[in-house]
Amino acid sequence: MTERIATTPGVFPLPDWAKDDLSDLKGHQKDDLITGDEGPELTAVYDEAREEVVSVQRKAGLDRIVEGQLRWDDMLAHPLTVHDSVETGGIVRYYDNNNFYRDPVVVNELSFDGDVAAELEATTELADDVQAILPGPNSLADLATDEFYNDDEEFLAAVADFLAGEVDAFPEIETLFLLEPSLVENPPEDGEDARASDAIDVVANATDAEVVAQPYFGSLDEKVHAHLLDADVDAVGYDLVSDHDGCLSNVNEYGTKDSVSLGLVDGQNTLVESPETIAERVDWFEENTPVNEFDTVYLTTNTETFYLPYSKFEDKLSALAEAAQLEEVTL
Q1: pTM listed for this prediction
Q2: Is 315 exposed, middle or buried (0-12, 13-18, 19+ CB in 10 A)?
């Protein structure tokens, strides 16, 4: 019988009170954003906000609890923007939306940092069944500017090694989600798609936890999808909100892993889907794919949720958790 697990790809919106407190403490300019060496006042706000979002997930009934990535001012670029070997450049659009991040310019060799591991250590003190969130190596390399390695292949390998080192320092976790929107938004060209899979392998092999490669903002090109299936991960993600037909076509043409992660709830839209609608979307996917029974289906939002008002974010988590508990719905 397929296990349905309700979870999220993290990168949550800040609680409203935390936004107000941080606005007073940090300001709004580029130089006021997180650098990895925040003082005790900022740390206290983020610690309290982390406790709140962990509590929200537990009360909602999610099966996997994430840290929330509330300090990630630069979204998926965060692990580099706080690194000592990186200088922050100009403000860059975050994919095809109205959010922006500081361009992380790599100017020296990428070495171990431990920033994300420290966040996870704090989270494991608050909850069991913790799920780690990281940018996938392809997306992190794509979001950055390389002024040290001066070779795309070498840079991707360095980013993958850097992320693997961070994972190696993680406390015990249940699941690791590697977020790879760049595989959709800026897919590797012919000859590079196998390298993309190899880079994911490097990170995935650094943990014994279940690893999910989670692309989003659409469906993958066929060749990229086929190569991603060669990666040593336990599940591949499908953004059914943005392009359910394209995702289904990929699975029916090339197959998929024994487990899948389904983006069922819109992480960028305030309309709250009902648990019944979410469960129906899972049933639709299972009924229209050649694999009759997956080992695990992760039920998740299709993107990060930092775009949402905090109250809508809470409602969507509750709907996801309830949907995972529903009996199969007949369409």
Answers
A1: 0.96
A2: middle
